[in-house]
Amino acid sequence: MSTDPVGELEAQLVDLWRRGRIQSRERARAIHPKLDPACYPLLAILTRDNDAVPMSALLAELGVEKSTLTRQIDAVVRLGLVERLPDPQDARARLVALTDAGRDQLSEQRAAAIADWHERLSRWDPADVRQLTTLLRRLADSTN
Predict the structure, then answer these.
(1) N or C end of the chain: which has fewer CB within 10 A?
(2) Are 56 and 64 in contact (CB under 8 A)?
(3) Model-level pTM?
(4) Pairing mode, if any, of strands 82-87 and 53-54?
(5) Residue 118 dihedral angles phi and psi, to the nearest 5°
(6) Ramachandran region of residue 80, left (φ > 0), alpha (ψ -120 to 50) or beta?
(7) Sign of the alpha-carbon torsion through 139, 125, 4, 16
(8) How far, in Å, CA of 50 to CA of 94, rounded?
(9) pLDDT at 144
(10) In what helix (H) or strand (E) does residue 32 lie, and over which residues does it extend?
């Protein structure tokens, strides 16, 4: 173990991100066998927001190029998970939303993921889970 707590944190985060990529790949395949795991964060945002989202908001949150986001949206539209809708505020713009089928599949997958987390953390004190959540939020806020 390193004597530098920040160096150790960085190493643990790298390992967590590696494991997260593996989980994203598994979760994407559970939603649809042809779903590119790179599209999973897009679907997670659409699930969280529970409404049609402007492409500009998705670009800002995902931190990808417009061409990358367009390809990802095209891919999930072809799979029937997402649809493009006209933006009532701007005739030139489009909103992106989950289809009913996409929402159903993502709700199922999310319920399974939460059940998995409950099992993994079943021996943890609930106060520790809350503290971890608080610390992760604080870490995320410090990276903006």
Answers:
(1) C
(2) no
(3) 0.81
(4) unpaired
(5) -60, -45
(6) left
(7) negative
(8) 16
(9) 67
(10) none
CA-CA distance, 113 to 121, in Å (whole number)?
Answer: 12
Please give the distance of CA 125 from its chain centroid, rounded to a whole number.
Answer: 26
Instruction: Kindly state the tokens that stand for 92.
Output: 């030139």
Strand partners, 53: 96
How far apart (Å, rounded) are the C-alpha atoms in residues 61 and 47?
14
- Read off the DSSP letter of residue 123: T
36, two tokens: 């590119």
DSSP 51: S
pLDDT in tens, the chain (144 residues): 568 899 999 999 999 999 989 998 999 999 999 999 999 999 999 998 778 999 999 999 999 999 999 999 999 999 999 999 998 888 888 999 999 999 999 999 999 999 999 999 999 999 999 999 999 999 989 986
Query: Which tokens belong to 128?
Result: 């520790």
